[in-house]
Structures are given as C-alpha cells and as structure tokens.
Amino acid sequence: FGGDTNLCKSSCALELSEKGYIFFSDEKTLLDLEKGLMVGGSRGVPLRKEIIRTKFAKNNRDFEQIRYDHLKTPKIKLIILPHLDHGLRDPIITPFAPLDLFWHLTKEFSRRIRGNTKFVNYFEYLLPSLDTDELAQKRIAATKEFSRQIKGYYFQGDLNQLIKFVDSKI
Fold first, then answer.
1. What's the predicted TM-score (pTM) here?
2. Cα separation of 103 and 170, whole Å?
C-alpha cells in the first residue's frame, strides 16, 4: 500500500503475481473495510519504468491490462508497505501496531477524499472537500476496526526475500 514513488510497490506486486498471487489492481484499489475485501480498482499497470516494461510488457505498450476472475473478490490477508533494497543480506521487517497501521491507512484513505489537493482552472481554485464530517467519522471507525483485524508490515529487502516473507504469512 501507499508510500512514496520508486519504492517498487508495483514491481513487488507484479513479482508476487508471477508466483501465483492475485494481482488485483495497481495505483488505486477500492476496499470494503467492513468485509475485508478488495472490491474494485484500476485495471491497467502503468509500465513507466524500464524494469517493469522489460519484464512484463508485451508489444512495448504503455499499459498492461490486469486480468482476473470477475467472480472472485479477493480477501485482504496482509498489508505490506514495501521498500525494495537489494543490498540487505537479511530483510528488515517491522510489524505495524494496530494504531500505526491505522495512521498509515487513514493517511492513504483520506488524502484524496478530503479534497486537499483538488484544484481546477490551472490551479487557480481549490475545490471544496467532497467529504462530510459524518462520512469521515464512519471511515475512521471502519479503518480502526480493520486495523485491529489485519496484520500490517513495513518490509525492506529484495524481491526473493519479499516472496519468502509473504509465503510465510499466507
């Protein structure tokens, strides 16, 4: 989930999909926090970086379509904030306490909804928030409960270490 650009989130997800895990979405994914399900998201993988383009793109396109069984709705089993680092002999794996996971997820879930970066007319006018206090409070409560039920980890290491880690947890 989330985090800065160039931490290899897409690369990690694509590599895990090569090992049999479902690659459901890239960039934006809709979650049902109460049921712990992924219910929608972007259907194309942007192949901006050469490493992703070389390994996964066919016909030198800019996007690769994600294919999955529309009858299956994947259950969220684990949340990982990846940071690929090929120079580590042993990976750095830090479990998130529920409150820390809540903080990270709230930041991701709220920043676009709250409308703090929505401008129009060449950045002349800031759009008002699309959120209401009532919706924000519901989202906070659902995120807190979700954070208590799911395991979250910060992971720093290489792709093989990541795959071993995910295999050990799933």
1. 0.76
2. 24
Q: Is the dihedral of CA 161, 170, 76, 44 positive or negative?
A: positive
Q: What angle do CA 140, 5, 104 make, to 5 degrees?
A: 20
pLDDT in tens, 134-160: 988 999 999 999 999 999 999 999 989
Dist. CA 38–CA 53, nearest whole Å: 26
Please provide residue 15's backbone torsions phi and psi, each rounded to the nearest 5 degrees.
-65, -40
51-101: pLDDT as tens digits: 565 665 565 555 555 666 666 778 899 999 888 888 899 999 999 999 999
SS (H, E, C) the chain: CCCCCCCCHHHHHHHHHHCCCCCCCCCCEEEECCCCEEEEECCEEECCCHHHHHHHCCCCCCEEECCCCCCCCCECCCEEEEEECCCCCCCEEEECCHHHHHHHHHHHHHHCCCCCCCEECCCCEECCCCCCHHHHHHHHHHHHHHHHHCCEEEEEECHHHHHHHHHHHC
